[in-house]
Design goal:
By secondary structure, this protein is mainly α. It has a single domain, classed as ACP-like (Non-ribosomal Peptide Synthetase Peptidyl Carrier Protein, Chain A), CATH 1.10.1200.10. It has 4 helices and no strands. Helix 1 crosses helix 4. The chain is globular. The two termini are 13 Å apart.
Length: 89
């Protein structure tokens, strides 16, 4: 899967799995935009992070363990895409 398609799929997953359909369209999420925190337009929380971790494992075989890994890898669409790309090598 090419990188642009991967990022598009990730944005769709974020919106659908974290139930943000009423808040933001997947097309409006920027690749380097912060996904978590009060400054974020997407405003994901820790439960969203857990849900996202489970979906990434199921969909891409990527395992994220612990809050430290979550904070490091789930910050932006770019960081998630990089994690998936690195795990496939």
């Amino acid at each position: 899967m090419e990188l642009a398609q991967l990022k598009e799929n990730l944005k769709k997953l974020i919106v659908e799995e974290c139930e943000k359909e009423d808040d933001i369209a997947w097309q409006d999420i920027l690749d380097d935009e912060q996904l978590f925190g009060s400054e974020s337009r997407i405003n994901l929380d820790s439960l969203d992070g857990l849900q996202l971790s489970l979906v990434l494992k199921k969909s891409f075989g990527v395992k994220i363990e612990g809050s430290k890994d979550s904070r490091k890898h789930l910050t932006t669409v770019n960081s998630i895409a990089a994690l998936i790309t690195e795990s496939k090598q």
